[in-house]
Amino acid sequence: MNLLDLFARKTRMPAPGEALPGRAQPIVEPGLHFVNGHPIAGPYPDGVRTALFGLGCFWGAERKFWQTQGVWATAVGYAGGETPNPTYSEVCTGMTGHNEVVLVAYDPAVVSYDDLLKVFFESHDPTQGMRQGNDVGTQYRSGIYVADAAERQAAEAARDAYQAALVQRGFSPITTEIVDRPPFYFAEDDHQQYLAKNPGGYCGLGGTGVSCPIGTGVAAS
């Protein structure tokens, strides 16, 4: 397979019936957050909500969110594909359809969903399709996975506002998918809070340098 064929394969979602079969049982038992000691799978304190984002390699993406004030816990995992309970190596083949995503548990009295959307858009380039920088493949696509109509409305409004700002700077159209939240599968323990465990590790994120012009109030979405 030449490089062009490999690029085409990695950037194409698997057709129906092509996805790897996966397994019925989870591959990991989620533990405690390496940075703050909170349980990454809950139980969460009363009032804490969760959000789900994909913005390239989940190592660097997760750090962006755990460094955000008001975020109670973060976890990396896989979502948006067909294979149940996939492994990292399976996701990397491009044959599960999953994206590398970050689960964000946050206190909406401190940080709003709009605030998280601002972190999301300013932490990567959402115009690149099935890639993020040098990382190529369906697992690196830009995605916002919404839990309800309010999140969808906020995500679409943020996308449209940021698109206008990007057009003024000569960027291509935003390719971020905004879809109903799919099942989330926790990634293996060595991927959780990877850059806290490996401070010199690969990050892979690079934003556009353009500020996302949306509200940053503290009200819950």
Automatic annotation (TrEMBL):
One annotated GO biological process: cellular response to oxidative stress
EC nos: 1.8.4.11
Domain Peptide methionine sulphoxide reductase MsrA stretches: 50-203
Keywords: Oxidoreductase
Active site: 57
Record Gene3D superfamilies: Peptide methionine sulphoxide reductase MsrA
GO molecular function per UniProt: peptide-methionine (S)-S-oxide reductase activity
Oxidoreductase in keyword set: yes
Any single Pfam family the record assigns to this protein: PMSR
Cellular component terms per the entry's GO annotation: cytoplasm
Enzyme class, first EC level, given as a word: oxidoreductase
Catalytic activity: [thioredoxin]-disulfide + L-methionine + H2O = L-methionine (S)-S-oxide + [thioredoxin]-dithiol; L-methionyl-[protein] + [thioredoxin]-disulfide + H2O = L-methionyl-(S)-S-oxide-[protein] + [thioredoxin]-dithiol
Keyword Ribosomal protein: no
Family: Belongs to the MsrA Met sulfoxide reductase family.
Role: Has an important function as a repair enzyme for proteins that have been inactivated by oxidation. Catalyzes the reversible oxidation-reduction of methionine sulfoxide in proteins to methionine.
PANTHER family: MITOCHONDRIAL PEPTIDE METHIONINE SULFOXIDE REDUCTASE (PTHR42799)
Database matches in HAMAP family: MsrA (MF_01401)
Protein name, as recorded: Peptide methionine sulfoxide reductase MsrA
